[in-house]
Design a protein that fits this description.
Elements lengths: L16 H17 L1 H19 L1 H4 L5 H9 L12 E6 L7 H10 L6 E8 L8 H19 L3 E10 L2 E10 L2 E2 L3 E3 L9 H24 L6 H16 L7 H22 L2 H15 L8 H19 L6 H13 L9 H20 L5 H16 L6 H21 L4 H16 L6 H22 L3 H14 L8 H19 L6 H16 L6 H21 L4 H17 L6 H21 L2 H17 L6 H20 L5 H13 L9 H22 L2 H21 L2 H14 L1
Parallel strand pairs: 1-2, 1-3
Antiparallel strand pairs: 3-4, 4-5, 4-6
């Protein structure tokens, strides 16, 4: 054949059978679909053949194995968001997966986290330094973690050493990446203790990371997120396969205690607070002042907060005193020059405990110390450096000023408190910090209520009601039942106070509804003290409703309400709460007796007030003592009106004058006006019975004193009633 022979390059069955078949197939395919398509298919088949022929080498090329793993996935099974999940990738140099199955069998022994096998692998590439190659591999691993929503990824390879199989494994956890560790199974193919120690350490780091994230979300609803996390951490700590070193275990116990403390505060869960105390005490047996001074101080500070959470709900100050000791201990290591921000944290927490102790004591020493601690904290927690922390202290400072302002004349502390609260609200955001924003609104409402008693008018009360309503946009019965109940109680009190500026009963009915709402959460069996406080407030509303209506239904219910309250508060007889409830029962019985013309009820009323006065002291309980004297005077006045002579009326006048020794125009203008009005009434009746123009003149003067306050404050109901009595006197 010559070079130009058209058959020169054709194969024959005898020369090359495969080539012959290829040519015949190509000729047939070309005839069917054309040259272009036939050529493409032929090239594709050739590449497929070559790939299959060299598959063992090709699959080890960079990126090929990952691509194949991805293509072979039928669906992605991700880690549960409320659980700790360890993902396990395919191992290199384990083509049949026997060693991977061994690893997974061993991990099944561990019940502290979910194990998630992945149909993917992480490979260390070539082309850079070892550190660079490992960094790239860990970057791949983090992408896998993100995709599968796991917290840790275990990956690596199988290595043959002296005829024995061993694992070289690496952990990737968020920002942490291990350099790799060799683990040699024993004769029974069990992984060594070193593996379980490393696993426990890694899980401890995961727990710390998640706790830090929760801590960064202070002021948000966390209880629902924390409860499954708490269950998972308990599972970790109790797993028999765990090999906790003392420091790792301390870190995990601290995270669990911190989470329980947060749940206790948001959900009003005393059991969670008690467990947190136990955990922090356990942590302090491992984090000592000698081996971990700063961590020891942190545990002391959190122990103090847990103890204070319990102590704030108790009648005694035992836990509060223990909290004080713990916070003071933290300051031994959290010094201002060494860790100024942590020093400020301890100062703030000390202020909170001192404030709680001060609220239970008659003097103001601890309240003043609390205010100073808060001011100390503000020297380092400035608005520029840590605005959210600065706002926390402003809120706490306002609470202490509010407590002090209630005990002192004037409005200075109360006005300072409102400034601090409104400053905090400039920082808090209802979207980003809903709980702290709502809590500050509640505190503002409480402060404005008391301020309204000093400044009269309705502006402060209306602002307080707005603040409570704003808070209730965030606080719900479902998510924050205790805080919701507290806000409803405050709202009911503010509406009740505003009702005194109006003639009708609309505000009183709104107040009654708010207080009854609070009582659906504060039940007597679950929250006895709070229940008694809300019932006492409800009794006051019922008395006012009874005063403005013709029947006696509300007055009778008020009497039953105050008697029930006293059943609870009898265990703290002679306390301010008990004295106030006794005086309120006296008032309700007096009104009921006057309405039904029942001398017995009026005598019972006077007796209840005398009981209150036996427990009250003008020196230690001046406001409660004055209330009891005023109400005793009212009962004696009603009895005196229904009897001849002036003996009971004279006694009533003495009681009213005694009450005015504490109820001054400067310190409590509304109470002063109420007693002036009652004094005017008894003087008018005495003047009529004794035919004494002087007494009638004194009565008119007392009435005018009362009208000065009630008119300036817009108290329509009281103004109309007293103005009518004054005209009768003239």
């Amino acid at each position: 054949m010559t070079d130009n022979d058209p058959n020169a390059n054709k194969s024959t069955p005898t020369d090359n059978p495969l080539a012959f078949l290829r040519d015949r197939f190509t000729k047939w395919l070309t005839a069917k679909i054309g040259v272009k398509w036939a050529s493409g298919i032929a090239i594709g088949l050739t590449l497929l053949f070559l790939t299959l022929w060299n598959w063992k080498n090709i699959r080890e090329l960079p990126g090929v194995s990952q691509a194949l793993d991805f293509l072979s996935q039928e669906h992605i099974h991700r880690g549960a968001p409320d659980k700790l999940t360890i993902a396990v990738a395919h191992l290199d140099n384990d083509p049949e997966g026997k060693n991977e199955r061994l690893l997974l069998d061993e991990l099944e022994k561990f019940q502290g986290a979910d194990i998630l096998p992945l149909n993917t692998r992480i490979q260390v590439s070539y082309g850079g330094t070892l550190d660079e190659n490992l960094a790239n591999a860990h970057a791949q691993a983090r992408k896998v973690l993100e995709e599968y929503r796991a917290q840790a990824l275990l990956w690596g390879s199988v290595v043959e050493v002296n005829g024995r199989t061993t694992f070289r494994l690496r952990w990737t956890v968020s920002d942490l990446a291990s350099q790799g560790q060799r683990y040699d199974p024993d004769g029974d193919l069990n992984l060594p203790s070193l593996f379980w120690e490393d696993l426990s350490h890694v899980l401890g780091l995961i727990v710390q990371t998640r706790m830090t994230k929760f801590a960064s979300e202070t002021g948000t609803f966390q209880s629902d997120k924390l409860k499954p996390f708490i269950a998972q951490v308990r599972r970790l700590l109790n797993d028999p396969s765990s090999r906790w070193g003392p420091m790792d275990r301390a870190s995990v116990e601290f995270a669990l205690g911190y989470s329980l403390l947060a749940v206790s505060i948001q959900s009003d869960d005393d059991d969670a607070a008690r467990e947190a105390v136990q955990l922090f005490q356990s942590v302090l047996s491992k984090w000592t002042e000698e081996n971990s001074p700063l961590q020891w101080a942190r545990a002391q500070d959190n122990l103090g907060s847990a103890l204070a959470t319990l102590g704030e709900k108790e009648a005694t100050i035992k836990h509060l005193q223990e909290a004080l000791i713990a916070h003071q201990a933290a300051l031994k290591e959290w010094t201002r020059d060494r860790v100024p921000l942590e020093w400020a944290r301890a100062q703030n927490n000390l202020g909170t405990v001192l404030e709680a102790i001060g609220a239970r004591e008659p003097g103001n020493e601890h309240l003043n110390q609390s205010i100073q601690r808060y001011r100390n904290a503000l020297e380092e927690w400035t608005r520029e450096k840590v605005p959210l922390n600065w706002a926390i202290v402003q809120n706490n400072l306002a609470n202490a000023l509010f407590a002090l302002g209630q005990r002192q004349d004037g409005t200075q502390q109360l006005l300072e408190a409102t400034v601090a609260l409104r400053s905090a609200l400039e920082v808090w955001n209802p979207q980003k910090n809903p709980l702290t924003w709502a809590g500050t609104q509640v505190n503002l409402g409480n402060t404005l209520q008391v301020l309204a008693q000093r400044r009269l008018g309705t502006e402060d009360l209306k602002a307080a009601i707005t603040a409570y309503h704003d808070a209730l946009q965030i606080l719900t019965r479902e998510k924050t039942p205790a805080s919701w109940a507290t806000t409803q109680n405050g709202l009911g009190s503010a509406l009740y106070a505003l009702s005194n500026h109006e003639v009708g009963v609309e505000r009183l009915l709104e107040a009654e509804a708010a207080l009854r709402a609070a009582l659906t959460v504060w039940t007597r069996d679950k929250a006895e003290e709070d229940w008694a406080g809300a019932e006492n407030n409800l009794g006051g509303v019922l008395v006012s409703l009874g005063e403005r209506e013709q029947g006696t239904g509300h007055l009778q219910e008020a009497v039953r309400t105050f008697r029930a309250v006293l059943e609870v508060w009898k265990k703290k007889i002679n306390s301010s709460d008990w004295i106030g409830a006794q005086a309120n029962l006296c008032n309700a019985l007096g009104m009921l007796g006057a309405r039904e013309n029942s001398v017995k009820d009026l005598q019972d009323a006077a007796q209840e007030c005398r009981i209150a006065l036996k427990g009250a002291s003008r020196e230690s309980d001046p406001a409660d003592w004055a209330l009891a004297e005023h109400n005793l005077g009212s009962a004696l006045l009603a009895l005196g009106e229904r009897s001849s002579g002036t003996r009971l009326l004279d006694q009533a006048m003495i009681s009213f004058n005694d009450a005015l020794k504490e109820r001054t125009k400067q310190s409590s203008p509304l109470d002063w006006a109420a007693t002036q009005a009652s004094l005017g009434r008894v003087l008018r009746i005495l003047g009529e019975r004794k035919n004494s123009p002087k007494l009638l003149g004194d009565a008119a003067a007392a009435y005018n004193n009362a009208l000065e306050i009630f008119r300036s404050g817009g108290f329509i109901f009281d103004t109309d009633r007293i103005d009518k009595e004054l005209r009768e006197t003239m």
